[in-house]
Write a structure and sequence with these properties.
This protein is α/β, with parallel strands linked by helices and 210 residues long. The chain has one domain: Rossmann fold (3-Layer(aba) Sandwich), CATH 3.40.50. It is built from six helices and ten strands. It has an eight-stranded mixed β-sheet, with helices on both faces. Helix 3 links the parallel strand 4 and strand 5.
Length: 210
């Protein structure tokens, strides 16, 4: 497949690029600073672009089978970036009639699973309070996706780690895995690539966790 990856210099983005290349896909990595992208390989095109300008992104998404995005705030000070930049991507995709997009969101935006332990509920309440600006940004981003004409999927992992990927994780379409507390960034990337051709994930939030 021909894939475009936004946020390709981030932890999940680089994993998406690495795994996609290893699977034989053609990958266009859209970045602001090419020096920060450490992944190389046959089939990779690195494209520098202003992510706030939809016109500058049209060439990167034209004729793509899917767009995968790891765009998001790195800290509370960056809150707002996920919705703003995703809006640019969606505008470019709609102009080029590119339909499939998968983005990284977060587990707290999904429903609380039945039977969730009290300790997990309490922890989630604290996390929601501390990171409320970031989650508000992601909620706007998901609203933008839902209002778009794209075939979108919002992948909602819990706390991320840099452990090696295992390929062993649980997914719940429209829900949240019970006691899903951690997930390696490499497994988030694996899950996103696996969902590209899964019709059950279209226009859905998908919880994913170990």
């Amino acid at each position: 497949m021909k894939l475009t990856v936004f946020g390709a210099t981030g932890g999940i983005g680089q994993e998406i690029v690495r795994q996609a290349l290893a699977s034989g896909h053609e990958v266009t990595a859209v970045v602001r600073d090419p020096a920060r992208l450490t992944v190389t390989g046959a089939g990779l095109t690195v494209r520098r672009a202003d992510l706030t300008d939809p016109e500058a992104l049209r060439g990167a998404v034209a004729g793509r089978d899917a767009v995968l995005s790891g765009l998001g705030a790195r800290s509370r000070a960056d809150a707002g970036v996920a919705a703003r930049l995703t809006r640019s991507v969606l505008t470019a995709m709609e102009a080029e009639m590119t339909r499939r997009i998968l983005v990284v969101s977060a587990a707290p935006l999904g429903p609380t699973p039945e039977g969730q332990p009290l300790v997990d509920r309490a922890t989630l309440a604290v996390i929601n309070a501390v990171l409320k600006d970031i989650y508000a940004d992601l909620r706007v981003m998901e609203s933008e996706l839902a209002a778009s004409g794209t075939d979108w999927t919002a992948v909602r992992p819990p706390r991320l780690t840099d452990k090696p990927g295992t390929g062993q994780y649980r997914t719940v379409v429209g829900g949240t895995p019970l006691r899903g507390r951690f997930l390696a960034r490499a497994d988030v990337a694996h899950a996103m690539l696996a969902m590209i051709d899964d019709p059950a994930t279209l226009k859905q939030g998908v919880g994913v966790a170990h």
